[in-house]
Amino acid sequence: ATMPPLLSAMANAGRHGVLVKSAVVMERLGQVDAVALDKTGTLTEGTPRVTDVGPFPGTGLDDEELLLRAAAAEAPSEHPLARAIVTAAREQGLEIRPVVDFGSTPGVGVKATLDGRLVEVGAPARLLRGADDAASARAAALAGELEEGGRTAVLVILDGAPVGVLGIADRLRPDAAATVTSLASLAGTAPVLLTGDNPRAAARLAAEAGIEDVRAGLLPEDKVRAVRELETAGRRVMVVGDGVNDAPALAAAHTGVAMGRAGSDLALETADAVIVRDELATVPAVIALSRRARKLVV
Ligand code: ADP
Ligand code: MG
């Protein structure tokens, strides 16, 4: 017997490296007319590297001690920035000691207790919110310098006092710009970038990828709001993301697509389709497959 078009399209998507979870999803993929892309791990390779380690003067910490504390607090996290920090510490031969009371807030950062001291690591703009002391002002200025250079700045706070910043850089995926172009022509609207990262790093990366509409500094619920706004305007929105922070937007979207290789478990479970082969260019390919199958169905 010949397979129904949507089922054979699913099998075909599988050969392209995309796991489409149902025939209904296979059909919906072709209806998409707006695309929202996450930055870290989606538009970028998702294997960022620590490029700068900057303990603040007067804190008594050197580079290794700063990195060590940040890595210990980040060790339980699956965030790409966390993995970058842990990798940097390991490469320096630092021993990462276990922490207690670990907690993470998507789009913000992590906290944990190491040797009885509270370590917080995360987005400077979020962690410094409301603080107006001199140490916080200096921390914000140093983070701003790193961000100006296209880095993601990560702030380290020890027992409530900012003690240093780390600079982290990630590369655009090689197929990002071409994918943005194909998605724009398939969807009929230019893709938008939704990111929790700082506006400066986001703008720089978006320019490289050919994206003009950039919304930065978003919390998970802000990503959902952005998707709902597009849907209220009559769009059927595809969200492509990888993180725990993307899960609510993946769920709210008309079609949610997760990056499989380094994607968080929550994103993979929530998404309607999973990119297994880790190539962004498979996204326009499956939209095209869906359109072809739907022509055969109707
Ligand atoms: P994106 O939307 O680009 O994938 P996220 O929402 O995951 O980014 O993260 C947004 C910002 O929150 C990061 O740029 C970083 O500043 C901060 N952040 C989130 N998780 C962590 C973490 N585990 N360690 C350090 N910073 C983090
Ligand atoms: Mg991400």
Automatic annotation (TrEMBL):
Gene Ontology cellular-component annotations: plasma membrane
Keywords, comma-separated and alphabetical: ATP-binding, Cell membrane, Magnesium, Membrane, Metal-binding, Nucleotide-binding, Translocase, Transmembrane, Transmembrane helix
GO molecular function: ATP binding; ATP hydrolysis activity; ATPase-coupled monoatomic cation transmembrane transporter activity; metal ion binding
Localization, UniProt: Cell membrane
Main location: membrane
Coiled-coil region(s): none
Similarity-based family: Belongs to the cation transport ATPase (P-type) (TC 3.A.3) family. Type IB subfamily.
Protein name: Metal ABC transporter ATPase
Taxonomic source organism: Streptomyces toyocaensis
Shown chain mapped onto the complete sequence: 306 to 603 of 659
